[in-house]
Amino acid sequence: MRIVLTRHSDQTGDLEAGLRQAGHICVHMPLTQQILPENRSELSTAIQRLEQGDFTWLLLTSANTVRALLSCGWSGAVPEKTSVGVVGPGTARILEERCWLKASWMPQDHSAAGMLAEMPTPESGTNLLLPQSAQARPDLAQGLSAKGWNLTQVTAYATVPLPRPELDHPEPELTGDDAVLVTSSSAAEVWVTLRAPRAKVLAIGRPTAETLRQLGRPADTVLGEPTAAGVLQALAQLDL
What we know:
The protein is of the alpha/beta class. Helices cover about 35% and strands about 20% of the residues. It has 2 domains: about 1-30 and about 165-235, Rossmann fold, CATH 3.40.50.10090; about 35-160, Rossmann fold, CATH 3.40.50.10090. It is built from 9 helices and 10 strands. Strand 6 (about 125-135), helix 6 and strand 7 (about 150-160) form a beta-alpha-beta unit.
C-alpha cells in the first residue's frame, strides 16, 4: 500500500528503507520544517562549552537536534570524557553518519519518557547539555533536574509549518486507501488543517496521538516504536 511519510526524504532513513523492503510504496508530504533560532548566542556558547569539555553528558532527543548543532557550528566531536546519549536508532544513525560519532547510551524505550526513566543517577554536580526543539515539552528537562543532573537546556531549533504541504508523487492527491504516518505533535497540528480524505492515520508516540485527539482528528493507531517494524505491526493491527 502507499504510506505517506510526513517528513522530508532525508529525515526518514531506515524507516523508509524498511517499509520499501516490505513491499510498500513510500511517498513524502513534509508538513513542517526546522529553523535555527534567530538569536543563536546561547546555542553557540553551549557548543563551545561542549567542545571545551564542560559537560559530562550530551543528550540528543532527535536527529534534527544533531543537524541543528552542526548547522550552528558544532564540529561533531566531543571530548573523550563526554558521554553521548541518544533517544533512538534514527538519531544514532545520523550522529554516526554526520559526525563519525557512536552513541554511548540509548534507552530501551525510544522516547523522552524512556530517557528520563532509564538515565542513570548522576554523581553530584554532573553537567549535562540538553539541546532541544523550541516546542519540546518540559517534562524531560524538569525530570533530569529533579534527578540531580546539573542541567543546561538550550533551544537548538524550532519546528514551523510548511505553508503548502504537497505529495512528492506523480499522483499528488491523498486517498482513503493511503496510510499517513504523523511523526510529531507539530506535524499533527498541520495535518488537522488539511482537507484530506479519511486515510488511515498512524501516530508516532503517545504525545503525537494525544495532540491529534485533542484537535478532533484521532489516530487510528499509535506505533509501539518509531521504526519500520513498528509501522508494519500497526498496519497488521489495522488489518491493512
